[in-house]
TrEMBL record:
Signal peptide: none annotated. It holds the Pfam family GHMP_kinases_C. The gene is ispE. This is 4-diphosphocytidyl-2-C-methyl-D-erythritol kinase. Residues 211-257 form the GHMP kinase C-terminal domain. Gene3D superfamilies: 3.30.230.10, GHMP kinase, C-terminal domain. Pathway: Isoprenoid biosynthesis; isopentenyl diphosphate biosynthesis via DXP pathway; isopentenyl diphosphate from 1-deoxy-D-xylulose 5-phosphate: step 3/6. Keywords: ATP-binding, Isoprene biosynthesis, Kinase, Nucleotide-binding, Transferase. It comes from Hymenobacter caeli. Catalyzes the phosphorylation of the position 2 hydroxy group of 4-diphosphocytidyl-2C-methyl-D-erythritol. Belongs to the GHMP kinase family. IspE subfamily. InterPro entries: GHMP_kinase_C_dom, GHMP_kinase_C_sf, GHMP_kinase_N_dom, IspE, Ribosomal_Su5_D2-typ_SF, Ribsml_uS5_D2-typ_fold_subgr.
Length: 274
Protein backbone atom coordinates (compact mmCIF):
# COMPACT_ATOMS: atom_id res chain seq x y z
CA UNK A 1 0.00 0.00 0.00
CA UNK A 2 1.35 3.39 -1.07
CA UNK A 3 0.53 6.51 1.00
CA UNK A 4 1.65 10.13 0.95
CA UNK A 5 2.15 11.45 4.51
CA UNK A 6 1.65 15.22 4.40
CA UNK A 7 3.10 17.95 6.58
CA UNK A 8 1.19 20.35 8.87
CA UNK A 9 1.23 24.05 9.63
CA UNK A 10 0.47 25.65 12.99
CA UNK A 11 -1.78 28.72 12.85
CA UNK A 12 -0.93 30.39 16.14
CA UNK A 13 0.85 28.52 18.89
CA UNK A 14 0.70 29.40 22.57
CA UNK A 15 2.73 27.44 25.08
CA UNK A 16 0.46 27.91 28.09
CA UNK A 17 2.07 25.90 30.92
CA UNK A 18 4.80 23.44 31.81
CA UNK A 19 3.46 20.08 33.00
CA UNK A 20 4.92 17.99 35.81
CA UNK A 21 6.02 15.36 33.23
CA UNK A 22 8.23 17.95 31.47
CA UNK A 23 5.87 18.38 28.50
CA UNK A 24 3.97 21.62 27.88
CA UNK A 25 0.30 22.41 27.34
CA UNK A 26 -0.49 24.18 24.08
CA UNK A 27 -3.18 26.10 22.31
CA UNK A 28 -2.65 25.82 18.57
CA UNK A 29 -4.47 25.14 15.31
CA UNK A 30 -3.17 22.43 13.01
CA UNK A 31 -3.90 22.46 9.29
CA UNK A 32 -2.76 19.85 6.75
CA UNK A 33 -0.13 21.10 4.29
CA UNK A 34 0.03 19.18 0.99
CA UNK A 35 3.87 18.84 1.01
CA UNK A 36 4.33 15.08 1.23
CA UNK A 37 6.69 12.17 1.75
CA UNK A 38 5.89 8.80 0.12
CA UNK A 39 5.50 5.73 2.31
CA UNK A 40 4.95 2.19 1.04
CA UNK A 41 4.00 -0.67 3.33
CA UNK A 42 4.00 -4.22 1.95
CA UNK A 43 4.08 -7.70 3.50
CA UNK A 44 7.77 -8.74 3.64
CA UNK A 45 9.02 -11.40 1.21
CA UNK A 46 8.74 -14.93 2.67
CA UNK A 47 11.38 -15.49 5.35
CA UNK A 48 12.34 -11.80 5.56
CA UNK A 49 12.09 -9.79 8.81
CA UNK A 50 10.46 -6.34 9.07
CA UNK A 51 12.71 -3.68 7.54
CA UNK A 52 12.76 -0.18 6.10
CA UNK A 53 14.38 1.29 3.01
CA UNK A 54 15.05 5.02 3.28
CA UNK A 55 15.52 7.26 0.24
CA UNK A 56 15.37 11.00 -0.35
CA UNK A 57 16.35 13.48 2.37
CA UNK A 58 18.72 11.90 4.95
CA UNK A 59 17.12 11.25 8.36
CA UNK A 60 19.39 11.66 11.40
CA UNK A 61 19.65 8.53 13.57
CA UNK A 62 19.74 4.81 12.85
CA UNK A 63 17.10 3.45 10.43
CA UNK A 64 15.94 1.00 13.15
CA UNK A 65 14.76 3.99 15.20
CA UNK A 66 12.54 5.32 12.43
CA UNK A 67 9.11 6.32 13.71
CA UNK A 68 7.43 4.15 11.04
CA UNK A 69 9.05 1.02 12.49
CA UNK A 70 8.14 2.13 16.01
CA UNK A 71 4.54 2.58 14.85
CA UNK A 72 4.40 -0.93 13.37
CA UNK A 73 6.01 -2.43 16.49
CA UNK A 74 3.27 -0.88 18.66
CA UNK A 75 0.61 -2.61 16.56
CA UNK A 76 2.49 -5.93 16.58
CA UNK A 77 2.59 -5.87 20.39
CA UNK A 78 -1.23 -5.94 20.39
CA UNK A 79 -1.71 -8.02 17.20
CA UNK A 80 0.98 -10.74 17.45
CA UNK A 81 -0.17 -12.35 14.21
CA UNK A 82 0.73 -9.29 12.13
CA UNK A 83 3.31 -10.43 9.56
CA UNK A 84 6.74 -8.83 8.98
CA UNK A 85 6.52 -5.87 6.59
CA UNK A 86 8.81 -4.09 4.15
CA UNK A 87 8.56 -0.31 4.43
CA UNK A 88 9.92 2.18 1.92
CA UNK A 89 9.99 5.82 3.06
CA UNK A 90 10.97 8.44 0.51
CA UNK A 91 11.65 11.54 2.62
CA UNK A 92 10.81 14.91 1.08
CA UNK A 93 9.52 17.09 3.93
CA UNK A 94 12.40 18.77 5.81
CA UNK A 95 13.23 17.49 9.30
CA UNK A 96 13.36 19.65 12.43
CA UNK A 97 11.23 22.13 10.56
CA UNK A 98 8.08 22.36 12.68
CA UNK A 99 6.20 20.67 9.85
CA UNK A 100 5.53 17.41 11.72
CA UNK A 101 7.00 15.21 9.01
CA UNK A 102 8.17 12.37 11.24
CA UNK A 103 4.87 12.34 13.08
CA UNK A 104 2.98 12.16 9.79
CA UNK A 105 5.04 9.18 8.62
CA UNK A 106 4.25 7.31 11.85
CA UNK A 107 0.52 8.11 11.69
CA UNK A 108 0.30 7.03 8.05
CA UNK A 109 2.13 3.77 8.88
CA UNK A 110 -0.53 3.05 11.53
CA UNK A 111 -3.36 3.82 9.10
CA UNK A 112 -1.80 1.78 6.27
CA UNK A 113 -1.28 -1.29 8.49
CA UNK A 114 -4.84 -0.99 9.81
CA UNK A 115 -6.19 -0.98 6.28
CA UNK A 116 -3.85 -3.51 4.65
CA UNK A 117 -4.32 -6.12 7.35
CA UNK A 118 -7.98 -5.36 8.16
CA UNK A 119 -7.32 -4.70 11.86
CA UNK A 120 -10.62 -2.81 12.21
CA UNK A 121 -9.12 -0.14 14.50
CA UNK A 122 -11.37 2.89 15.04
CA UNK A 123 -10.18 6.47 14.57
CA UNK A 124 -10.00 6.81 18.37
CA UNK A 125 -7.93 3.64 18.69
CA UNK A 126 -5.52 4.81 15.97
CA UNK A 127 -5.20 8.19 17.73
CA UNK A 128 -4.39 6.32 20.94
CA UNK A 129 -1.46 4.53 19.27
CA UNK A 130 -0.35 7.78 17.63
CA UNK A 131 -0.27 9.65 20.98
CA UNK A 132 2.25 7.11 22.24
CA UNK A 133 4.60 7.98 19.35
CA UNK A 134 4.65 11.79 19.61
CA UNK A 135 2.50 14.74 20.64
CA UNK A 136 1.94 15.83 17.02
CA UNK A 137 1.23 12.38 15.69
CA UNK A 138 -2.48 12.01 16.59
CA UNK A 139 -3.41 15.02 14.44
CA UNK A 140 -2.40 13.12 11.29
CA UNK A 141 -4.92 10.31 11.89
CA UNK A 142 -7.91 12.47 10.91
CA UNK A 143 -5.70 15.02 9.17
CA UNK A 144 -8.17 17.89 9.08
CA UNK A 145 -8.03 21.41 10.63
CA UNK A 146 -8.39 21.28 14.42
CA UNK A 147 -7.96 23.49 17.47
CA UNK A 148 -5.57 21.51 19.68
CA UNK A 149 -5.08 21.64 23.44
CA UNK A 150 -3.40 19.38 25.97
CA UNK A 151 0.05 18.33 24.70
CA UNK A 152 -1.17 19.18 21.20
CA UNK A 153 -3.11 15.92 21.07
CA UNK A 154 -6.64 16.88 22.19
CA UNK A 155 -8.79 18.20 19.37
CA UNK A 156 -11.86 20.32 18.65
CA UNK A 157 -13.18 20.92 15.13
CA UNK A 158 -12.66 24.40 13.68
CA UNK A 159 -13.80 26.09 10.46
CA UNK A 160 -11.17 28.23 8.75
CA UNK A 161 -11.41 30.57 5.75
CA UNK A 162 -8.40 28.91 4.11
CA UNK A 163 -9.70 26.97 1.10
CA UNK A 164 -7.95 28.21 -2.03
CA UNK A 165 -5.40 30.31 -0.11
CA UNK A 166 -1.99 30.51 -1.78
CA UNK A 167 0.84 29.55 0.57
CA UNK A 168 4.64 29.54 0.56
CA UNK A 169 6.68 27.57 3.11
CA UNK A 170 10.35 28.48 3.51
CA UNK A 171 12.81 26.15 5.27
CA UNK A 172 16.13 27.92 5.84
CA UNK A 173 18.11 24.72 6.38
CA UNK A 174 18.29 24.99 10.18
CA UNK A 175 17.45 21.83 12.13
CA UNK A 176 15.83 23.11 15.34
CA UNK A 177 15.20 20.23 17.77
CA UNK A 178 11.73 20.23 19.29
CA UNK A 179 12.93 19.69 22.89
CA UNK A 180 15.52 22.48 22.50
CA UNK A 181 12.83 24.87 21.28
CA UNK A 182 10.47 24.10 24.18
CA UNK A 183 13.32 24.61 26.65
CA UNK A 184 13.63 28.23 25.43
CA UNK A 185 9.93 29.19 25.92
CA UNK A 186 8.47 30.92 28.98
CA UNK A 187 4.86 29.63 29.21
CA UNK A 188 2.05 32.22 29.43
CA UNK A 189 -1.65 32.62 28.68
CA UNK A 190 -2.51 33.61 25.09
CA UNK A 191 -2.97 37.34 24.55
CA UNK A 192 -5.90 36.58 22.19
CA UNK A 193 -7.73 33.24 22.45
CA UNK A 194 -7.07 31.47 19.18
CA UNK A 195 -10.55 30.39 18.09
CA UNK A 196 -11.87 33.97 18.29
CA UNK A 197 -8.76 35.45 16.63
CA UNK A 198 -8.89 33.02 13.70
CA UNK A 199 -12.58 33.78 13.14
CA UNK A 200 -11.53 37.19 11.78
CA UNK A 201 -10.35 37.73 8.17
CA UNK A 202 -6.79 36.48 7.46
CA UNK A 203 -5.65 40.11 7.13
CA UNK A 204 -6.41 40.66 10.85
CA UNK A 205 -4.35 37.69 12.06
CA UNK A 206 -1.09 39.65 11.91
CA UNK A 207 -2.22 41.60 15.00
CA UNK A 208 -3.95 38.78 16.85
CA UNK A 209 -2.37 35.39 16.07
CA UNK A 210 1.15 34.64 17.34
CA UNK A 211 3.54 31.71 17.72
CA UNK A 212 5.36 31.82 21.09
CA UNK A 213 8.38 30.05 19.59
CA UNK A 214 9.16 33.09 17.43
CA UNK A 215 10.17 35.29 20.36
CA UNK A 216 11.73 32.38 22.23
CA UNK A 217 13.98 31.39 19.29
CA UNK A 218 14.81 34.92 18.08
CA UNK A 219 18.03 35.42 20.12
CA UNK A 220 19.57 32.12 18.97
CA UNK A 221 18.19 32.24 15.40
CA UNK A 222 18.04 35.91 14.33
CA UNK A 223 17.60 34.97 10.65
CA UNK A 224 14.03 33.75 11.23
CA UNK A 225 12.62 37.27 11.72
CA UNK A 226 14.24 38.40 8.47
CA UNK A 227 12.46 35.62 6.53
CA UNK A 228 9.13 36.60 8.07
CA UNK A 229 9.76 40.24 7.12
CA UNK A 230 10.48 39.15 3.52
CA UNK A 231 7.18 37.25 3.37
CA UNK A 232 5.30 40.35 4.52
CA UNK A 233 7.29 42.54 2.11
CA UNK A 234 6.11 40.20 -0.67
CA UNK A 235 2.50 40.96 0.22
CA UNK A 236 1.60 38.04 2.50
CA UNK A 237 -1.59 38.75 4.48
CA UNK A 238 -0.20 36.62 7.30
CA UNK A 239 3.23 35.09 7.98
CA UNK A 240 4.50 32.96 10.87
CA UNK A 241 6.88 30.33 12.07
CA UNK A 242 5.31 26.83 11.98
CA UNK A 243 5.50 24.82 15.21
CA UNK A 244 8.96 25.03 16.76
CA UNK A 245 10.56 26.02 13.44
CA UNK A 246 12.65 26.48 11.53
CA UNK A 247 10.13 26.65 8.64
CA UNK A 248 8.08 29.81 8.15
CA UNK A 249 5.06 30.31 5.92
CA UNK A 250 3.16 33.11 4.27
CA UNK A 251 -0.50 33.20 3.18
CA UNK A 252 -1.89 35.10 0.17
CA UNK A 253 -5.70 34.77 0.20
CA UNK A 254 -7.38 35.30 -3.16
CA UNK A 255 -4.21 34.72 -5.19
CA UNK A 256 -3.74 31.75 -7.51
CA UNK A 257 -0.17 31.27 -6.29
CA UNK A 258 2.34 32.69 -3.85
CA UNK A 259 5.03 34.92 -5.40
CA UNK A 260 8.33 33.24 -6.31
CA UNK A 261 10.90 35.00 -4.14
CA UNK A 262 14.64 35.09 -4.49
CA UNK A 263 15.69 32.87 -1.55
CA UNK A 264 19.26 31.61 -0.99
CA UNK A 265 19.97 28.39 -2.90
CA UNK A 266 20.25 26.30 0.29
CA UNK A 267 16.67 27.12 1.35
CA UNK A 268 13.88 24.66 0.55
CA UNK A 269 10.67 26.30 -0.61
CA UNK A 270 7.19 24.83 -1.14
CA UNK A 271 4.58 26.87 -2.96
CA UNK A 272 1.01 25.76 -3.45
CA UNK A 273 -2.59 26.19 -2.42
CA UNK A 274 -4.17 25.11 0.88
C1 LIG B 1 6.12 22.03 18.29
C2 LIG B 1 5.02 21.15 17.76
O1 LIG B 1 5.34 20.74 16.43
C3 LIG B 1 3.75 22.00 17.67
O2 LIG B 1 2.79 21.41 16.86
C4 LIG B 1 4.78 19.93 18.61
O3 LIG B 1 4.44 20.28 19.94
C5 LIG B 1 5.94 18.96 18.61
O4 LIG B 1 5.40 17.68 18.76
P1 LIG B 1 6.29 16.36 18.51
O5 LIG B 1 7.37 16.66 17.53
O6 LIG B 1 5.34 15.25 18.21
O7 LIG B 1 6.94 16.20 19.94
P2 LIG B 1 7.35 14.87 20.74
O8 LIG B 1 8.17 14.01 19.84
O9 LIG B 1 6.14 14.29 21.38
O10 LIG B 1 8.26 15.52 21.89
C6 LIG B 1 9.56 15.99 21.65
C7 LIG B 1 9.97 16.87 22.82
O11 LIG B 1 9.30 18.13 22.74
C8 LIG B 1 8.90 18.60 24.01
N1 LIG B 1 7.42 18.77 24.02
C9 LIG B 1 6.66 18.28 23.01
C10 LIG B 1 5.29 18.49 23.00
C11 LIG B 1 4.72 19.21 24.08
N2 LIG B 1 3.40 19.44 24.14
N3 LIG B 1 5.50 19.69 25.08
C12 LIG B 1 6.86 19.49 25.06
O12 LIG B 1 7.55 19.94 25.97
C13 LIG B 1 9.39 17.58 25.01
O13 LIG B 1 10.65 18.03 25.46
C14 LIG B 1 9.57 16.31 24.19
O14 LIG B 1 10.55 15.46 24.70
N1 LIG C 1 10.23 9.20 9.61
C1 LIG C 1 10.95 10.15 10.20
N2 LIG C 1 11.06 11.37 9.66
C2 LIG C 1 11.75 12.36 10.28
N3 LIG C 1 12.42 12.20 11.43
C3 LIG C 1 12.37 10.98 12.02
C4 LIG C 1 11.65 9.92 11.44
N4 LIG C 1 11.76 8.86 12.24
C5 LIG C 1 12.53 9.24 13.27
N5 LIG C 1 12.91 10.50 13.15
C6 LIG C 1 13.74 11.25 14.13
O1 LIG C 1 13.01 12.38 14.60
C7 LIG C 1 13.83 13.57 14.53
C8 LIG C 1 13.00 14.71 13.98
O2 LIG C 1 12.10 15.12 14.91
P1 LIG C 1 11.63 16.63 14.96
O3 LIG C 1 10.50 16.64 15.94
O4 LIG C 1 12.80 17.53 15.19
O5 LIG C 1 11.17 16.95 13.45
P2 LIG C 1 9.93 16.55 12.57
O6 LIG C 1 9.26 15.30 13.07
O7 LIG C 1 10.40 16.53 11.16
O8 LIG C 1 8.96 17.76 12.67
P3 LIG C 1 8.59 18.71 13.89
O9 LIG C 1 9.76 19.64 14.04
O10 LIG C 1 7.36 19.40 13.46
O11 LIG C 1 8.31 17.85 15.08
C9 LIG C 1 14.94 13.26 13.55
O12 LIG C 1 16.13 13.87 13.99
C10 LIG C 1 15.05 11.75 13.54
O13 LIG C 1 16.07 11.34 14.42
Amino acid sequence: MLTFPNAKLNLGLYVTARRPDGFHTLETVFVPLPWTDALELLPAAPGQPTGIVLTGRPIPGAPETNLCLRAYALLQADFPRLPPVQLHLHKVVPIGAGLGGGSADAAFALKAANELFGLGLSTEALEGYARRLGADCAFFIQNRPVLAGGKGDEFEAIDLPLAGTACAVVYPGLHIGTAEAYARVAPRAPAHPLRAALAGPIETWRGTVANDFETALAPAYPGLAAIKAQLYAAGAAYASLSGSGSALYGLWPGRAEAPALDWPAEYLVWRGVL
